[in-house]
């Protein structure tokens, strides 16, 4: 299977573990990811607040590049990138918009390439039987809270699953042998976009996500979003202070847990780069012992 | 050329203020065919009508045009006037120079001009009018009531008491419907079963009522006065003639199934009666769950039955019966709350609906009337109600108000406080709507005497932490978010049309709105009639309703049905569609567009170039046709004509308009 890959800025920076684990897992599964040459910023978090045309044109250029290189499907790991790219894809279905954007980016764009969230590619495109056959270290006994955040499930035109109770990552976790917990904060906002401007408001929201995962009995949280991850991971100590309770919840990218289940080395997956210590929980799973 | 008379009415000053009536009459004298033209202050008055009748005789008129008010107002008057003078009533045309001219215009010159134009058109049309005759059809003096809830029962009783035989049909194997599931009724708090079951028994024992339960309507043919209804009597696997209703089979049946009547809060057997007061009070076998019918093992009920009534070989039976009138009373379904994922609906066991709470409150319900929450049987103390779930919510495709929820929530809050004085009810609402006799007073009591706390705002999220349900919402009067830790959440689920309401509507040939509620013929003036003559609506199948409204509408529908049955014979519509077989190509477009299913394609034999050949053409059933004219518009070859509004007549009007 061949896909275009749009890594975005975080996969080499704040979300380096996401980048490392994505590549390692893809290689292990025999999925061919071709990085879109000369890609640019998707515009997330700022462009659509400034200018609508800019917010479509930025990702549209990446879509145009993908088209030029014959990449019909683009896998996008970052949830924010996915949402901007998919929103552009939807906007480009309108012929006048397509023409206008084409003039702005000075490229021909037909809107042929399909934007896919990485979590979709790793679940819907993989045969369930195949996936269970390659799991060598099932995550038995690991209680996981799947946290989707807001960007993959809203608004309806770009959503990959139900906005209230998505299940796609829960099913993936179950396929890896882990136990997904029932909880109610799957798609609540983590406060990511207020993290810089109003940190006290943001922290309250982050803390609630962590609290309810803990109350649901989870050992850890799994996410498909670098922004959520950095909030939940980096600010967990501050959240503990705010809540007055101990959390100790490692925050994993779903690709990291896939990698572990597939038998890859933890350091190769970036698991040593977390704020909340992330390796011992996995070493302690019954399967590892 | 026909001899035509013209009569221009002043309508006091209603028309005369804006139209020179004398001038109009004067000009009309020169229209082709006009032998007499005159004006008068009130044409509809007795002297006016006498004047017309004298003119008909004196001038030997073939037809006449009256320029006056709307035909909706006085067409019957002027048609009868013609008939009294020996003229065919369909040789009259009425031109509207009041509602569509004098009342809406101010300029007298222009009003006069317009009146002349309209009159010219009327005269051009009446010249082409042909005498039309209505025929009479016999009436089958029996009525069918579809649906045995409170509306159907009431309608059946009223028709039966008027002296006509009624067949009361229900798809379930007992009558009683939704009301049987309800514990108490607002605003009087009398026990629902106590007022319903006497009616059920009365219906079952009434000499004019035939109960036909566990049966469904398969097809409807025929027309007003003579509907031929195909009914499927579903196999019960119990011979009701032999069954005594002793209940031994139910007691011994080993198979337990969640009870639909108890909203799956309790269990029933595979051979069962849904509730103790069921009518008829004899069990049936649920074929989907019966061990014997599924895999041939068991057979206990047959062994224990003292009268040998159990019959595993029974099959569905199709019967065709003829009815003069049909009352549709198929009711509603409770909205499926699982669409509200944000409320954990369908996932969290302690997030329940109003009907669930009815069963939990009911003394003969699964908890014997003790309020125990479904998850762990704990008695709840804090109860949160959320109103408008599946009502007034565009996002869920339900923009309409379900009408009964505000009151049933108030009732629930009152009863919970009575049963459990230490409990507290919180009610999230958008508006509180209590337009009904003694409703507002009841609502006020709920707040003032029963301590219910009403919170204005929507709930955004309900989730479970430990054994508590966290309800998050907004208090929009305080402008603040609120959070309540509840033990039980009741969603005031709204009303949905029956899932198969649209199928039934198509079978009956009646119309329905975008949601599936059956449509009345006129929202104000014909609230129980449908567009199909002889079919009437009762209860919530026409739109959300509470019990008093359903009963009132049922009695109204019964009066309409009995009125129809009381006629010795029916006069059919004279202005019906007619197919010109010489032009008809048999394409069938008219057949598919006809809302009354009155058009069929038939084969005719004709001579063509000296040889006989067969050809398909449309045929309009004159008894069914209501004269709507849809087929005449659809017909590509112009073969379909509406008598009284033929293509020829309408073109003549257009020609006349262009002649000015």
From TrEMBL, chain A:
Pfam families assigned to the protein according to its UniProt record, in alphabetical order: CCG (PF02754)
This protein's UniProt keywords: Oxidoreductase
InterPro entries referenced in this protein's UniProt entry, alphabetically: Cys_rich_dom, HdrB/HdrD_reductase
Domain Cysteine-rich: 4-85, 144-233
Name the UniProt record assigns to this protein: CoB--CoM heterodisulfide reductase iron-sulfur subunit B family protein
Protein source organism: Heliobacterium chlorum
Lineage: Bacteria, Bacillati, Bacillota, Clostridia, Eubacteriales
From TrEMBL, chain B:
Cofactor(s) of this protein: FAD
Organism superkingdom: Bacteria
Keyword list, A-Z: 4Fe-4S, FAD, Flavoprotein, Iron, Iron-sulfur, Metal-binding, Oxidoreductase
Family matches, as Pfam families: Fer4 (PF00037), Fer4_7 (PF12838), NAD_binding_8 (PF13450)
The keyword Transmembrane helix is annotated on this UniProt entry: no
InterPro entries associated with the record: 4Fe4S_Fe-S-bd (IPR017896), 4Fe4S_Fe_S_CS (IPR017900), FAD/NAD-bd_sf (IPR036188), HdrA-like (IPR039650)
Classification via Gene3D superfamilies: 3.30.70.20, 3.30.70.3270, FAD/NAD(P)-binding domain (3.50.50.60), NAD(P)-binding Rossmann-like Domain (3.40.50.720)
Protein name per its UniProtKB record: CoB--CoM heterodisulfide reductase iron-sulfur subunit A family protein
